[in-house]
# Entry
Amino acid sequence: MKNSIQTIAFRLFSFIILTTGVQAAPYSPKEVGEQTAWTRQQILHCTQKETDARDQQLIDQEVLFLRFEHENRDQLMKSTAMLNDEQTKALNNFRRSLLRCRVLSKQFPLPSMVDVYQNYYEQIDQIYDGLIEKKMTIGEANRKKVKLLEETQAKWSAIEDSIRKNNAP
# Structure
């Protein structure tokens, strides 16, 4: 079921991209790749610089996994707990510090890439809001984040496929 939903979502997104006129990049695929890698690196550096290490560690260990391969991810996904005061404060601080880095996503070479990041930010903000407002458990938030990451990766892959196809010899 999960794979069929992902396949449908991927095909729908691919159809939207192909029918809305995603044009070949004004750059070569190599230049798009270089600019994309540079922008991702800038976002990563900003995130590391702006976030408080204690808040980041608390979020990663107790609230939302920050790395997909995190060893605690499955436990977080099963949690029925709501945020406590310390976790709420850390998440608010973490979120505020990340806001400074989001503008860097506008440096991606294609508008569709910017859109993927902006959509991700909107969706992750809804997850943060749900946690802070105690409308969802830590487990629900982590399951939603997994789904969001899968959807985002599918969109990103469709863009990369489109670039390769549009720039094929």
Notes: Confidence is low (pLDDT under 50) at residues 1-25. Residues 138-166 form the longest helix (29 residues). The chain has one domain: 28-166.
